[in-house]
């Protein structure tokens, strides 16, 4: 099936038309990134984790590893910021760590644009309104990413995700992709202060539509 039920066929075609040729063009970059990760981080080259996708269906997310497996004397993993390497920070700042997700777009598990796939344990913490972020395919970039990425509060992220769900169009996706390249160049919102990426979502974040950023 080309597109999951409920996903506009035009969005799926748009993803494939951009992603398949794009993978061919960036294949040398993929190989170089994989080689650097292998040299500096060792095996495995890819970080994998189960994430909820469309309608909460679980899938395996793959990214280039940005952290080592360094542990303390008790055998516990060190905090993220202590395991993040200089290469890892560069991969995250440039979003090169996300490149393996392009294969998930071809497989129909993700889209170029949509709410970022979060952790499985967050599913039980969402309010019914927040859970609507799963009404579309998760994306490599999204409306929240171009408005602050990890520097946003959870409430603002959910507001922006839901705005995207309610206002999706191909033209909106095109604008988000264009702005994503600019944000990557500027390296904005990579992490929250005091965190390697962002603090954990614990629930009870309310959705306030009045604070949602206006559309383009």
Structural domain count? 1
What's the helix count? Answer: 6
What is the chain-wise order of helices and strands? HEEHHHEEHH
**Overall outline:** globular
The overall pLDDT, averaged over residues, is: 87
Largest sheet: number of strands, sense, barrel closure = 2 strands, antiparallel
Concise description?
With 216 residues, the chain is mainly α.
Descriptive report:
By secondary structure, this protein is mainly α. The protein has one domain (9-211). 38% of the residues lie in helices and 9% in strands. It has six helices and four strands. It has helices at 9-41, 80-83, 86-94, 101-106, 154-167, 170-186, and strands at 46-52, 58-64, 111-113, 139-141. The protein has a two-stranded antiparallel ribbon with strand order 1-2. A hairpin with a 5-residue loop joins β1 (46-52) and β2 (58-64). The longest helix has 33 residues, at 9-41. It is globular, with a radius of gyration of 17 Å.
List keywords for this structure.
single chain, mainly alpha, two-stranded antiparallel sheet, two-stranded parallel sheet, 38% helix
How are the SSEs ordered, and which strands pair?
Layout: H1 9-41, E1 46-52, E2 58-64, H2 80-83, H3 86-94, H4 101-106, E3 111-113, E4 139-141, H5 154-167, H6 170-186
Parallel strand pairs: 3-4
Antiparallel strand pairs: 1-2
């Amino acid at each position: 099936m080309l597109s999951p039920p409920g996903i506009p066929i035009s969005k799926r075609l748009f993803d494939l038309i951009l992603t398949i040729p794009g993978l061919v063009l960036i294949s040398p970059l993929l190989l170089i990134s994989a080689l650097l990760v292998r040299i500096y981080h060792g095996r495995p080259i890819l970080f994998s984790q189960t994430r909820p996708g469309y309608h909460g269906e679980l899938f395996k997310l793959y990214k280039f590893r940005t952290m080592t497996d360094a542990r303390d004397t008790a055998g516990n993993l060190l905090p993220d910021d202590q395991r993040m390497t200089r290469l890892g920070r560069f991969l995250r700042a440039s979003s090169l760590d996300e490149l393996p997700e392009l294969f998930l777009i071809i497989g129909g598990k993700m889209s170029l644009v949509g709410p970022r796939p979060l952790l499985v344990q967050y599913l039980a913490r969402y309010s019914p309104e927040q859970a609507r972020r799963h009404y579309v395919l998760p994306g490599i970039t999204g409306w929240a990413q171009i408005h602050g990425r990890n520097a946003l509060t959870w409430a603002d992220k959910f507001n922006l995700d839901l705005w995207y769900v309610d206002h999706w169009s191909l033209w909106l996706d095109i604008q988000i992709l264009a702005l994503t390249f600019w944000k990557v160049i500027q390296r904005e919102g990579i992490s929250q202060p005091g965190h390697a990426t962002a603090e954990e979502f614990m629930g009870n974040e309310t959705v306030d539509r009045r604070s949602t950023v206006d559309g383009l």
